[in-house]
Amino acid sequence: QVQLVESGGGLVQPGGSLRLSCAASGFTFSNYVMSWHRQAPGKEREWVATVTTAGSNMFYADSVKGRFTISRDNAKNTLYLQMRSLKLEDTALYFCKAVLNTQTWWGQGTQVTVSS
Fold first, then answer.
1. Segment 39-76, tens digit of pLDDT
2. What is the DSSP string of 32-76?
3. CA 26, CA 14: separation in Å to the nearest integer?
């Protein structure tokens, strides 16, 4: 059974940091391109960052570039998102996504709230 379980979300003040994790099981994690997406209330889901299968290439949305770092540990079947200098507009439900060819799986999300 495929599972993607996000964790690490919470309430943080502007300028603070959080690290999200996504634990994968039920498939060969190292074969999948992994991404983070987010969805704020009343808005469409948007792409945040992507890491290739070996973790050697990372891509970021302009809105998070220089503040967020995506990484993966294939030995632990885990995806990470280190978030720094958080802003109010980073408040959203954060999802991890696994993609291999036409196969796509999503996690259930973890809530990040940035508020003073």
1. 999 999 999 999 999 999 999 999 999 999 999 999 99
2. SEEEEEEE-TTS--EEEEEE-TTS--EEE-TTTTTTEEEEEETTT
3. 36
